[in-house]
UniProtKB/TrEMBL annotation:
The name this protein goes by in its record: 2-oxoglutarate-dependent ethylene/succinate-forming enzyme
Molecular-function annotations in GO: 2-oxoglutarate oxygenase/decarboxylase (ethylene-forming) activity; metal ion binding
Essential cofactor(s): Fe(2+)
Keyword rRNA-binding in annotation: no
Family the entry assigns: Belongs to the iron/ascorbate-dependent oxidoreductase family.
Segments traversing the membrane: none
SUPFAM superfamilies referenced in this protein's UniProt entry, alphabetically: Clavaminate synthase-like (SSF51197)
Keywords: Ethylene biosynthesis, Iron, Metal-binding, Oxidoreductase
Enzyme class: oxidoreductase
Pathway in which the depicted protein is active: Alkene biosynthesis; ethylene biosynthesis via 2-oxoglutarate
Length: 306
């Protein structure tokens, strides 16, 4: 069900993205190889994140999100249930996370944006953590811009079609740690409950070879998403589905919990257009009312009890 797309090959001739259009219509998940992100940037980030989660609870609590709804910092175990964003009541997800926001605050940021996505990231007191995080964030921002060029071509637009919408993106980076599971989880309890992502696209890097990430196929089956060492997993978010008037799908996915699983780590970069970007269906239809990216994200975010 999951197909590969080679970004380097596309960039060499910049013409054919029909496979991406098909993949985004059918599964909303693609495996991106030829991405060019230096292996060292990835390895440094993974090491930094491993060191962060290995700390004791008190150290992690020092950078906890200071109030419910604060978008960044540490969110401890049992604090979030992603299925709530689908209106499902479930026990909390079996995970912890560390979250950070944009590396720069634009000079003209609005008060609303400053109070939400431009709140400061809370840096842990760990040598090397911040530079590794920022290098990875910057690499993801760059990669997302390149993938948006592919998306533009896949949608029959000029490669730089999305540029005016993503000059100051309000993307977030989330490091996820799923501790080893013990006995049988509670009914409906998952490592990450079934949800769709909110934004334009997500760049996922599950720990290579790790298991548990599943996407829901059109026939309702849950299908394991591979975690290859040489590629990123890209998936479409709700805002892109809306932007394309549902030509592309924002697919339900989850990370399953089973008894006695080893720990699992994953990195998720949630790309989100500029705060003020106005998202209007690209087919010219009125299938969705216009929304602005920032307020749209804020409304979505409030639904998970984070
Ligand atoms: O842990 C993963 O690989 C996926 C997590 C996820 O889907 C999310 O945080 O939105
Ligand atoms: Fe997700």
């Amino acid at each position: 069900m999951f197909e590969r797309f080679d970004l380097a090959a596309f960039e060499a001739d910049s013409t054919d993205a029909t496979a991406v259009d098909r993949i985004c219509r059918e599964t909303g998940f693609l495996i991106l190889q030829g991405h060019g992100v230096p292996q060292q940037v990835i390895a440094d980030m993974q090491a930094a994140v491993t060191a962060f989660f290995a700390q004791d609870a008190a150290a992690k609590e020092q950078v906890r999100a200071p109030y419910p709804g604060y978008p960044y910092g540490y969110i401890g175990p049992q604090m979030e249930a992603l299925a709530a964003s689908q209106g499902e009541e479930t026990p909390p997800d079996l995970k912890e996370s560390f979250n950070g926001g944009p590396l720069r605050v634009p000079a003209n940021a609005s008060a609303d944006a400053l109070a939400f996505c431009y709140q400061p990231t809370l840096w842990p007191d760990l040598p090397g953590f911040r530079p590794a995080w920022e290098a990875y964030y910057a690499a993801m921002e760059d990669l997302a811009t390149r993938v948006m060029r592919v998306f533009a071509v896949a949608l029959g637009k000029a490669p730089d079609f999305f540029a005016p919408y993503i000059g100051e993106p309000i993307s977030a980076l989330r490091a996820l740690h799923y501790p080893p599971t013990q006995g049988v989880p509670l009914d409906n309890q998952q490592r990450a409950g079934a949800h769709t992502d909110y934004g334009s696209l997500t760049i996922l890097l599950p720990q290579p070879g790790s298991q548990g990430l599943e996407a829901r196929a059109p026939n309702g089956d849950w299908v394991a998403v591979p975690a290859p060492a040489d590629a990123f997993v890209i998936n479409i978010g709700d805002l892109m589905a809306r932007w394309t008037a549902d030509r592309w799908v924002s697919t339900l996915h989850r990370v399953v919990a089973k008894p006695h699983q080893p720990a699992r780590q994953s990195l998720a970069f949630f790309h989100q257009p500029d705060w003020d970007a106005e998202i209007v269906p690209l087919d010219g239809s009125d299938s969705y009312a216009p929304v602005r990216s920032g307020p749209y994200l804020m409304d979505k975010f409030k639904s998970t009890g984070a």
